[in-house]
TrEMBL record:
One GO location term (cellular component): nucleus
Official protein name in the record: Uncharacterized protein
Top-level taxon in the UniProt lineage: Eukaryota
Nucleus recorded as keyword: yes
InterPro entries reported for this sequence: Fun_TF
GO biological process: positive regulation of transcription by RNA polymerase II
GO molecular function: DNA-binding transcription factor activity; transcription cis-regulatory region binding
Main location: nucleus
Alphabetized UniProt keyword annotations: Nucleus
Taxonomic classification: Eukaryota, Fungi, Dikarya, Ascomycota, Pezizomycotina
Keyword Transcription: no
Record-linked Pfam families: Fungal_trans_2
Length: 432
């Protein structure tokens, strides 16, 4: 989810399906997000995000100045994070992480109640591994347009890796959110920097830390973020998920506590968890598809693969048919539809989330067909043609410059696998 490397030109289909790391896994590819983006007057505009600043504070004249991150939410509430021992050269990178990168890690352009800002960033005060992993990720993003940040990103990455490995010998540190957060940030860093398998090693490390902590907790934002990386990454690698799901689903039957279902407050525009719940149910089928892909690459009988594929196909369409009409029947040109009153920012982000979910669903349909016909020997499947068209229509309607493209990369990735000899579609995929 998010901007930088770009979708590559379609390549010949392979049995593995691991064509490139350019899907939802690309969670911080944000170079295009710094461009000015102007929507026409009849579109539902998301206003620019709030200004956040890094300044120095001092409790009294005898104290040394402490760099402090001043955060102001869209609601007007503000809070301050002081970093008394931070190296001054690191200040701009932590500022960039907290004010920019954190907004695009899991949900598009969302900073109200964002736990990567409000919960994770303060932990960096006492965790050098987390501090330097955040700085590495921020420097890596900045290096996409300013090359002199590349060596700095590498330096912070090496420091974070060394500090994390040293800290894991302490059981308390190993169970902490700061350790898990650092491991996940290093995973994201590797995803954005290369096409090597190192990102998967960090993800495996995060898996081990989660298990060491007692297993995944559904209401923990780091577990939710891990599940997104795990499921998305398994689709790209075709290896199956590292932790079997659906631990990311919360309902009254399988919730961790004896009390009523807990409603997460993030993303803020989904105050009933309706949007997230639908996507989490779609993730169940994404995980099943990745497991089936792993089986298909093995010695499994093709007839058995076909039977399992048919079961997944039936299940995912049953989920889609029972999904709310606000998702299923959403028009791809919803931004341009006439309204008596413009959508609020929260309502707009909710619609954007539905568009992203529709794109992911279409990508899953393409992926399922790819498992059954990896080399494209069969005639084009009308269902796949329609899914590709849906992804491209959604991408064409999505405005650039707000981080909204990040939810479309999995669908675009799969559309790129399925599209051949269509210059217009290929150009849209590359630009997005």
């Amino acid at each position: 989810m998010a901007p930088g490397m770009g979708i590559k030109a379609p390549v010949p289909r392979t049995r593995t399906g691991a064509l490139t790391l350019a899907s939802n896994m690309d969670v911080i590819r944000c170079q295009r997000l710094q461009r000015e983006c102007v929507w026409s007057d009849d579109m539902q505009v998301i206003p620019p995000t709030q200004h956040l600043d890094f300044t120095s504070t001092s409790r009294n004249v005898n104290d040394f100045d402490h760099p402090a991150l001043h955060l102001t939410r869209p609601s007007g509430q503000s809070f301050v994070i002081e970093f008394p021992d931070i190296d001054r050269a690191t200040v701009p990178y932590i500022h960039h992480f907290a004010t920019f990168c954190s907004r695009f890690l899991a949900y598009p352009n969302d900073c109200e109640g964002n736990p990567f800002q409000e919960d994770l960033a303060p932990l960096a005060i006492s965790s050098p591994a987390l501090l330097h992993s955040m700085a590495a990720l921020a420097a890596a993003h900045l290096s996409r347009t300013q090359k002199h940040h590349e060596l700095i990103a590498t330096k912070y990455y090496s420091m974070a890796l060394r500090e994390l490995n040293a800290g894991l010998s302490d059981p308390v540190t190993a169970r902490s959110d700061s350790a898990l957060g650092a491991c996940l940030m290093l995973c994201v860093y590797e995803i954005t920097r290369s096409e090597s398998s190192t990102w998967h090693e960090h993800l495996q490390g995060a898996r081990d830390l989660i298990l060491y902590r007692g297993g995944p907790k559904k209401d923990n934002y780091l577990t939710r973020f891990f599940s997104l990386l795990d499921v998305s990454g398994s689709l790209v690698s075709g290896t199956g998920t590292l932790i079997q799901g659906p631990y990311w689903i919360e309902d009254d039957k399988n919730f961790d506590t004896d009390g009523p279902k807990r409603v997460n407050t993030w993303p803020y525009y989904d105050n009933t968890n309706h949007v997230v719940d639908e996507f989490h149910h779609l993730m169940v089928y994404m995980a099943k598809l990745s497991a089936l892909s792993a089986e298909a690459m093995g010695d499994q009988d093709p007839a058995i693969i076909a039977v399992k594929a048919a079961q997944i196909h039936e299940g995912i369409w049953e989920w889609w048919d029972q999904s709310p009409s606000s998702l299923r029947d959403q028009s791809n040109d919803w931004r341009r539809l006439p309204r008596l009153q413009k959508l609020s920012v929260a309502e707009t982000l909710e619609e954007e989330a539905y568009s992203s979910t529709k794109s992911v669903f279409a990508g899953c349909i393409i992926y399922l067909n790819h498992i059954l016909d990896p080399c494209g020997h069969q005639p084009e499947n009308p269902e796949v043609i329609k899914a590709v068209s849906e992804v491209l229509e959604i991408a064409k309607e999505t405005p650039e410059g707000y981080g909204l493209e990040m939810g479309l990369y999995w669908g675009l990735f799969m559309a790129g696998v399925a599209v051949f000899n269509d210059p217009v579609a290929e150009d849209l995929i590359r630009r997005s």
